[in-house]
Amino acid sequence: ATGCFTYDPGFTATASCKSAITYIDGEEGVLLYRGYPIEQLAEKSNFLEVAYLLINGELPDKAGFAAFEHDVTHHTMIHEAFTGFLGGFRHDAHPMAMLVGMLGSMASFYHNELDLEDPAQRRLAAIRLIAKVPTIAAACYRHSIGWPLNHPRNNLDYTTRFLHMLYEVPSEPLELNPIAAKAMDLLFILHADHEQNASTSTVRLVGSTGANPYACVAAGVAALWGPAHGGANEAVLKMLSEIGRPENVQSAVDRAKDRDSGFRLMGFGHRVYKNYDPRAALVRKMTHEVLGELGINDPLLDVAMKLEEAALQDDYFVERKLYPNVDFYSGIIYKALGIPVEMFTVMFAIARTAGWVAHWLEQQDDPENKIGRPRQIYTGAANRDYVGVDTR
Ligand code: SDX
Q: Which UniProt key words apply to this protein (predicted)?
């Protein structure tokens, strides 16, 4: 009745909901957005078109995409008083803390006049989130470095506009290498959705209570921040930097095999993929393209490749089906593009906003498809009588 059901495709799992948005075959390493293979979307599409696909279920024709792009483009600005919230954060606040705070307060600017019983109003909220999250993300970064905020430029495409808001300084026009927007757009596509991952399930659980979409997405950002989830890309770069050189890789692999060490290879393993994460292969290919195009010789790439090679030849990782995931190489690209490591997970959040709002819309359109109230296995004390403090 609550849309929860148990299925048994060879393993026991209780699904939290039904969804037609993304399909993953973890054993085979398959990822489909609305039936389209991620490899084809990565090669032929762009992030905003993928956002349209995730929300609407079909690829747009030219007029449909033009209308969607117009709607998104004309909702990219944020209320001046809203940007004032940033002043309340210390300059060294983690950008994910700022993003959670800004999105949580977004409802105070854009929710009051919304009637979420009206599908058109729900779609407007989704458009606002997709449009404004890059503006807010760039503002968080600019606040952290004490630079003036940039307003979104409507004559730029979605990803290029974001990079301009991130980097442009008043004193000189930004010369953006085309590879930067190409790589960022690919990373946005690859991070756009991923079925019932922790943050998307969080968005759906909060959405089940009837909370507004801005609160739902703020909760999703909070869940994404964890190093076991979206925070892994930041953790991977710190791990690669600590390993430092290819000759240190084997000791890192050996340490990761010792559970008592508490050390894991960040960017390795996945709750669902027990094969190579198809996204990781695409990110690794783009990493070589970006470093080649920018003429960067980043020793961390050598470390990452050596680490992957060593782990994939080690029985411990092979037996546990631990492969690189989407976070393993992405940080090297972000670093090459000048994105500070604290902003890595914010990049993930910008992309995943498309998936979060698609799942929220899907859920709100089907009252039966709410995540039910989870139950538990009780492991506490049995029923017992109260004892006064003097006799304890
Ligand atoms: C994302 O859900 C999604 O779709 C998420 C995501 C998305 O797009 O939304 O794909 C994005 O979150 C990718 C994952 C990013 N996280 C990391 O890279 C962090 C490092 N990875 C691990 O913490 C771990 O692999 C998980 C949490 C990702 C998955 O854990 P599992 O599959 O549930 O594995 P487990 O914790 O049950 O461990 C199984 C065994 C254990 O050893 P044994 O008890 O059998 O001896 O594998 C070991 C673990 O110790 N193990 C690892 C390891 N991951 C699991 N050992 C070393 N390094 C690792 N990374």
A: Acyltransferase, Transferase, Tricarboxylic acid cycle
Q: Which three-class secondary structure string do you get for 15-26?
A: ECCCCCCEEEEC
Reported ipTM: the value is 0.95
Active-site residue flag, 75: no
Regarding the beta carbon of 259 and ligand 1, being less than 6 Å apart is answered: yes
Question: Whole-prediction pTM value?
Answer: 0.93
Long-range CB contact pairs, 196-199, < 8 A, 24+: 196/15, 196/16, 196/17, 196/19, 197/229, 198/223, 198/224, 198/226, 198/228, 198/229, 199/223, 199/224, 199/229, 199/230, 199/352, 199/356
Pocket of ligand 1 contains residue 48 by CB under 6 Å: no
Per-residue pLDDT of the chain (392 residues; tens, 9 = 90+): 333 333 344 433 567 789 999 999 999 999 999 999 999 999 999 999 999 999 999 999 999 999 999 999 999 999 999 999 999 999 899 999 999 999 999 999 888 878 999 999 999 999 999 999 999 999 999 999 999 999 999 999 999 999 999 999 988 888 999 999 999 999 999 999 999 999 999 999 999 999 999 999 999 999 999 999 999 999 999 999 999 999 999 999 999 999 899 999 999 999 999 999 999 999 999 999 999 999 999 999 999 999 999 999 999 999 999 999 999 999 999 999 999 999 999 999 999 999 999 999 999 999 777 777 888 999 999 999 999 999 99
Distance, CA 280 to ligand 1 centroid (Å)? 15
Please give the number of the atom of ligand 1 that sits closest to the Cα of 24. Answer: 4
